[in-house]
Structures
1.
Amino acid sequence: MRLSRLLTATTATALVALTVLTGCSRAEESGSAPAASASPAAELRLGYFPNITHAPALIGVDKGLFAQELGSTKLTTQTFNAGPEEVNALLGGSLDAGFIGSSPAINAFAKSNGEAVRLIAGSTSAGAQLVTSPDITSPQQLKGKTIATPQLGNTQDVALKKWLGEQKLEIGQGPDKVTVQNIDNPRTLDLFKKGEVAGGWLPEPWSSRLVDAGAKVLVDEKSLWPDGKFPTTVLIVRTQYLQEHPDTVAALLRGEQKAIDFANSRRDEAKTVANGAIKKLTNSALAPAVLDRAFSELQFDNDPLAATFPQLAKDSVTAGASKTEANLQGFIDVTALNTVREADGKPAVDAAGLDKKQG
């Protein structure tokens, strides 16, 4: 009897061991990622800009739309003035997700060799223009002039330098070249009023602010893209956070969808909410005329316009912001986004093949 019990126990132990080994072997063979946490994250640290191009983020935070969807997950927010700063926070692990420009999003992916971040949704498209003093009516008249962009390598900096190259205009100092200076947007406005810069390739509301100060539109960037659509602001998340807390990321996306619906269906109220949030964060609100013009230039949609990103990666090299074209395979993950869109009765968005890593 005792021998029988011993054999049974030994057999059971062997079966358990065999099951564990078999499971490990299968996991190793499939290369599957660690199992995601079934519980929501304790905290979501979200970054965004106090800028009208980040209206869905401003509305989502101010109206409590993110917090409502996140439930027990604590929402901690941090604002940034430029994309490279936010990239450093994401790569440094002090931020979990962030609304950010398309070029810094690509840079974050490239700097981490395609590992640290994933683009999970769009937010805002269009809303960037080259605005100049009214006496400049053609590209050739930019020779000898100084044109501002918000920061080296940011979305507008890349767009301007690429466009100048297409116009056969050389960047540099001198009467036959165009000087490109990276200047904070508020200072660009001040320098334009003083006549010390001839204009800038700027995102809203700064292009509208310069127009309000007498500038004219020389180039509207949407005229350079099919259907006038190009990603101005997108939503990225740390890859590890996405893997560990998929439910929390889905909640963030539901909150963003509500904020976008609010911005599109209640336009006047959305302008007021976004402007009020900007005032809270910067102590300065937009003038009514600037706010109206800026909002009219923007389109809000969580479609990331994935098909534009290969061109954006090429443009970064053309503009000299990157030495080599970023490999964007695996950059975009719209799995959770499409689930949210389907639940909201919206069509799925296409990842344009950028959701797959090269084998």
2.
Amino acid sequence: MAKQKILIVTHSLDNTSTQTVIDYIRQSGGEAIRLNVDGYPMTTGLTTAFVDNRWRITLDTGTAIHDLDDVTGVWYRRSHNLGKGLQEAIGAEYLPAAIEEVKRTLIGMLEGLHCFHLGRYSVYRRLDSKEEQLKMAVRHGLLIPDTCISNDPAQVRAFVERQGGRVVSKMQSSFAIYQGAEEQVVFTNAVTDEHLQELDTLRYCPMVFQQEIAKQLELRVTVVGREVFAFSIDSQQVANAQVDWRKEGVNMINDWKPYTLPEDIHKKILSFMDDYGLNYGAIDLILTPDDRYYFLEINAAGEYFWLDRLCDHAISRQISAVLMGTAPRR
């Protein structure tokens, strides 16, 4: 069997989980190439050329030169700070166009690699649609909360009334709002009477509104290939975490516990992953007090590092094995 060559696309400030996977790949006899996108294009060169009826792709990281045309596996993990430093090197009027060209060149190269991808960038972008995720979950027999996605204040008021006022709101994308130097991260929040009084401003920006589901436990289910790693947390023990555990994520990082999913939920999740052709996904579920499981969303690049520590890095080992082709994959 030819030596496996794996390309990992991330950034220089990524957490240790990426390096853990790289170490396992190398221990298994594979070659791991790390592309930190925050160095592209300022300190990293990327060239694709078609000459003499052959494609050749060359990556120059500044410390090493790699041929990528014979890569056997790709893990697109992150592309944070792509184009970092360009704003200081070129005029502001050229920056948007340059950033767009940098992005298109990188993604075009990745999409053109006809090898195994843990998850293609194009599929990640498809998963930006929370609406399609929810419809897919229902198709595969998973429960979801009653949901309204709208910028129409009248429709949302009617939805909130049908739910007896017990509704949470969330955004489809992850972002923060900066007020001066202060960062305000947008979490899932309970809808209050005060929010309803300001509902007319919804016209300017649609939001997701969902039935508030009573929680016995919250689950993070990480799927790698055909393996499912489930963990639970009792978020209801901390007041600030009851609606969204991430608000106390750092303080509760050691409160997660391994969890065994019922066989039917296990099968439905794998069927859901099959439909998307995904080999990695972080799924959020709610277990209700009457033992029903509700699907909230999947993140195709979701974090898992704190859970990896609870299972002796079994998630990282499985990612490595799927990338290397030594474990079952889609």
3.
Amino acid sequence: MRIPGQAAGVAVLDPTGWIFMFRYDNEEVGVHWAMPGGGLDIGESPLRAAVRELREETGWTDIHVDGTTLCSWEHDFTRAGVPVRQHEYIFLTRGPRRDPIGDLTESHAADKILRWRWWSPDELAGAHEPLWPPHLPELLADVRRRGAPAAPIDLGHVRTGAVGRG
């Protein structure tokens, strides 16, 4: 039985196209790189959740997320031994390349965030560890060529290659 889930994340690009990402690891999901983001609270919109998660995970309060949606996708994983099929919205915004602000040690430990970094487009295209969503290098290459999509790109259900996939 799948438990439906919803999450939202933010692709923060610097002025030259580098993207900010976190490296996650836990026993059920495995190692992967993903943008700041997380689950929606009850009654919370995807955009509001994305802004909240960005603030909680980076300390950045001055990044404006206007609602431009890069993509949505579904993926499977397990949480506390329970299979989850999660629908995730990825918003797109720009910001300066900088470090997270404040002491986020406890928050990152609770979320199984091991570290963070800015990725150049070439580094992202040649990543050796899983990216969530896996199509991220191609999506961002399209953004560099054509600008933000007029409508969100629906990637549908994507296998992540992580433990517990469906």
